[in-house]
Amino acid sequence: MPSPTPLKESKVNSKTIGSIAAAILGVVLLCVFYGSWYTVDETERGVLLRNGALVGVVEPGLSFKMPFIESVRLISTQSQVTSYNDLQAYSKDQQSAELKVSVSWHIAPSDVAKVYTQFKDLEGIRDRMISRQVPTQVENVFGKFNAVAAVQNRVQLVNDISAAIKATITGPVIIDSVQVENIDFSDAYEKAIEARMAAEVQVKTREQQLATEQVQAQIRVTQAQAEADSQVAQAKADALATELRGKAEAEAIKARAQALASNQNLVELTKAERWNGQLPTTMLPNTALPFIDLK
């Protein structure tokens, strides 16, 4: 068979290359087309740039950007938490401490364009606004508290630090809350505090013991007083009873004497009542009558 001519081979190769190029171009155009569609989440906003210039803020949802000349930067509007460890500060009584402070903040959706033009992204606003103010304000506010007061009045300390940070950080960032997670004093100061607390505990314990002893002593005094009062009352009752018995006996004797004096027959009656019917066996000397014992 005759071999193909070079002209025919050239035509075949040209067609093949053209087909491949067309396919590649189609794929590129298809990718560009689909890549021009994008979505913005509800927790963020999109910054639409055209040739590097900001032309608008894109709301959540599906959007389209012009290929090659437009781009989108996403900025989160969710709450962010930035922690600052080992912040150095001195208390009012010159005690050094290291504080761990966390700051919660977010960007208002209406300020997304301002954030981009002034700070470009969240890292920029964090580094240039928040991180420059937090250490300074923590140090200033902590210096107004004594070391003990900073620990005992921790809520007030946190409120004052939060108010100071919010007052100095103004602009497209909103400070939600500030938390002082830890206050770490020097080892020497903490040992001194432990020793003082131990001494205070001992003092309180002794005060409680003394109070208990005083109560017990008061109880004993009360019991003794009650017993004494009881004995006095008993003695008075016994004396009154004796007095009443004496008066009763005296009245009885007096009444009996009056009765005997007014009625001589009563004596004889008493004798008769006491006689048992037997004659006496005892005679008085030189008498003819027997001795009768009226008892």
List keywords for this structure.
alpha+beta; 3-stranded antiparallel sheet; 8 strands; 295 residues; 7 helices; single chain; 56% helix; 22% strand; rod-shaped
Radius of gyration: 58 Å
User: Helical content, roughly?
Assistant: 55-70%
The computed structural class is alpha+beta
Strand order of the largest sheet: 3-2-5
Q: Give the terminus-to-terminus CA distance.
A: 188 Å
Q: What portion of residues belong to β-strands?
A: 15-25%
Q: Give the beta-strand count.
A: 8
Shape: rod-shaped
Query: Counting H and I runs of at least 4 residues, what is the number of helices?
Result: 7
- Spell out the helices and strands N to C: HEEEEEEEHHHHEHH
The stretches of 5 or more residues where confidence is low (pLDDT under 50) are none
The overall pLDDT average reads 82
Largest beta-sheet characterization: 3 strands, antiparallel
Describe the structure.
The protein has 295 residues and is of the alpha+beta class. The chain contains seven helices and eight strands, in the order αβββββββααααβαα. It has helices at 6-35, 112-119, 122-142, 147-152, 154-168, 187-262, 265-274; strands at 37-40, 44-50, 53-58, 61-64, 70-76, 80-90, 96-107, 173-185. Strands 3-2-5 form a three-stranded antiparallel β-sheet, with helices on one face. α3 (122-142) crosses α5. The longest helix has 76 residues, at 187-262. The model has no long low-confidence stretch (mean pLDDT 82).
Describe what is shown at a glance.
This protein has 295 residues and is α+β, with helices and mostly antiparallel strands. It is built from 7 helices and 8 strands; from the N terminus they run H-E-E-E-E-E-E-E-H-H-H-H-E-H-H.
